[in-house]
Design brief:
- This protein has two domains: 431 residues, TIM Barrel (Alpha-Beta Barrel); 41 residues, no CATH class.
- It is built from 17 helices and 13 strands.
- The termini are close together.
Length: 482
Amino acid sequence: MSTFPRIARFRTAADLRAHLATLAAPIPLDDEILSAAAGSPLAAPIGVGGFSVGNRWCIHPMEGWDATLDGRPTDTLLRRWRRFGESGAKLVWGGEAVSVVSEGRANPNQLLAASCGTAGFEALHREVHAAHHARFGTTDDLLVALQLTHSGRFSKPTAAGREPRIAYHHPLLDARHGVDPGDAACVLTDDDVERLIDAYVAAARMAAAAGFRMVDIKACHGYLLHEFLSARRRPGRFGGDFAGRTRVLRTIIARVQEECPGMIVGVRLSLFDTVPWHKVGDHGEPWPHADAVPYDCGFGVDERDPLEIDLAEPIRLLEILRDAGVPTVNLSAGSPYTVPHVQRPAAFPPSDGYPPPEDPLLGVWRQIDACRQAKAAVPGLVLVGSGFTYLQDYVAHAAQAVVRAGWIDMVGLGRMVLSYPDLPADTLAGTAPTRGLVCRTFSDCTTAPRKGLRSGCYPLDVFYKRLEPEATTLKHAKAAAT
């Protein structure tokens, strides 16, 4: 359990602001939340690739564990998409990750493009649009994307365990995640990469046929396309220098633009990373990395000190994406598998994580500040920020402030909408938040999938509280981990 002050103890934005001052984490907070009628900056429309998105709230894509074993939507999964549609956010960035090939699924119940086909994608598209229209009367300003992915070294397509497919052998991650450094078979060949590019394009074509106006090419969180960005040790045309390391991502984008005319292409990008961390005794520590310095296996990482951020290459990539016609990038950081306290600041760790080594507010500030730097350096891109959920009761206070200041264009929510999907709508309506639904970052939405259970908010969503045998299994798993 975290020893840092709980957000719920701060009764006002001023109280939280005073605590932030002691941390040197100047997250801006507005004292008053404005409704759309009162001129909230979060209510302002914004253009994305020629489409007018109706407000500045975004729903992040998350990884689902509740498709069928062959990768098609289920009723439970479609319920989640309905709730995204009812949220009031006008950009639904992917809903959840869809694997473009079977071997790249992160879990045995992840959506799979080939199994979904156009019909499966139509079901997702129909569900979110119908729910949004029923509540708000129009979908003319609603943009819904489909996130396409390959899970790389975190692939687990069957219950038998992980079956990593990697860009290169990593001197730290191999040991951290049980990859045999002598196994050449798990490294994708250039021919494998070419076939994978074709799979991304095929999935994008199905998404277009199903009515999606946008696809996201996922390059974050340690998954395959993110790993390629650090593949300095990989020989050949898909590794080595910056041009080689970005070639897979750039090629997929260009092919989708060519073969799916009119499709908006976005990218979710980990703007920075660090070395992996692990639990040692009752706390978390960086994986031993002295022998890996200078560190040539990072992206957005200072090679002299890989615990520090260096945004030079990520900003260079953002410029390239903008100039290639990518109108929007959703910025994240790190990986939930290797550095959850960086990627997803939380008071409580997931079952396979470690107690937070810092006040999680520092993790929130780290992401907000990196996004601020990216926004200043790369005008002309619509940037979506991440990491806000840990602010809990003060999400909207910060969201309103950073959008007004021009630090970010849109604010994304992930875990928060699993427990409280109405937060964007309530904020813009001037309705007081429902405190009993505010995500408290218990991390059950991560622990449950790690245990092979369906993904959702078990503490606060009544549907999951009553979901058996998952709810009981999760309680036992958490008890065993403490």
